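During the second half of the funding period, the structural biology subgroup turned its attention to how the target accommodates small molecules. The most pressing case was magnesium ion, which had performed well in the primary screen but for which no bound structure existed. We therefore specified the complex as follows and requested a full 3D prediction, including the ligand pose.
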Amino acid sequence: MTRLSGITPSGRVQLGNYLGAIRHWAKGSGDDLYFVSDLHAMTTAYNPARLRSLTTEQLAVLIAAGIPADSVFVQSDLTRELGALTWLLECTCTYGEAGRMIQFKEKAGAKSGKGRTGARLSLLTYPVLMAADILLQGATEVPVGADQVQHVELARALARRFNATYGEVFPIPRAVLPPVAARVRDLSDPSRKMSKSTRDSVGVIFVLDEPDLIRRKIRRAVTDGATETISAEPGNPARAGVTNLVEILAACTASDPDGAVAGIGSYRQLKETVAEAVIETLRPVREGATTLLADPAELGRVRKTGAGRAAERGEHRLSAALRLAGAGQ
Ligand code: ATP
Ligand code: MG
């Protein structure tokens, strides 16, 4: 069993990414694979220099979080392999299948401003690249949120069809839905979840934020101002801000929400306690990532090792797929 998970460098890594995903990845088995999906960040307008720096930062964070370096790679380091496999899979996928992807329908209209015809073609074909990510590595389990299940189903259909048409090459992957964990919410607008691509970042704690900045952001977090009742009430929108702070504290101190707030008497004290817990939770990751980022030669070496391992792992599947499909010598 090989599990594969990716994170897109659409913004700087935030606390929710760490508490909800990355720290669990660090506890996975040695067969698991994690990658920074920078090619996926190119389906809408982006800045190349910023993409490069976000990619490097994410890689450093994944390694500093404790994921074994040879289980981590950057997607674009396998552009040649993935490009080749994407072509074979595009030749296996129908236009109708790609067009039925709900994310395409949602994003194509919204982002281009001109409807679907103005969207990048890659926004339509991106699920096929995602299928290539999965099938190249022979991944069998793909942990995803509900919004990505349809894309994994497409990868599954393409693997089956390719195998049936040309010969058995790809293990059949399946989507696994991780247990529903509490979503970290935006500190300034707790009606939405914390996200790395949010434009206005006052309510977003980034994993590499300095302690003082974390204190300031948490001090300004929205509460309800009225009752000073220190407890989590999931499902009550009027108390979403306080619930979020309590849940962040519980996640950082590995305790249940009631236990985490025992003895806390005011919102001010709650915020101070949450800030220190977040700072301590992120400290080793921030320090490790900062050290790596200050040593580009070492980070480059680590990156190359991961890419080499990933390319090697996929090589026989790619060459078998090309041969069976009638391409190459
Ligand atoms: P984007 O704004 O680009 O969608 P994001 O911050 O939502 O960025 P994703 O790349 O969509 O991050 O997700 C990466 C991982 O982080 C996924 O496993 C996702 O479930 C998890 N994650 C993202 N945001 C949160 C959050 N607020 N709380 C808990 N987990 C989160
Ligand atoms: Mg997201």
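Two results from this model are relevant to the next phase. The two ends are 32 Å apart (CA to CA). Residues 7-8, 10-11, 14, 16-17, 19-21, 145, 183-184, 193-197 surround adenosine-5'-triphosphate (ligand 1) (CB under 6 Å).
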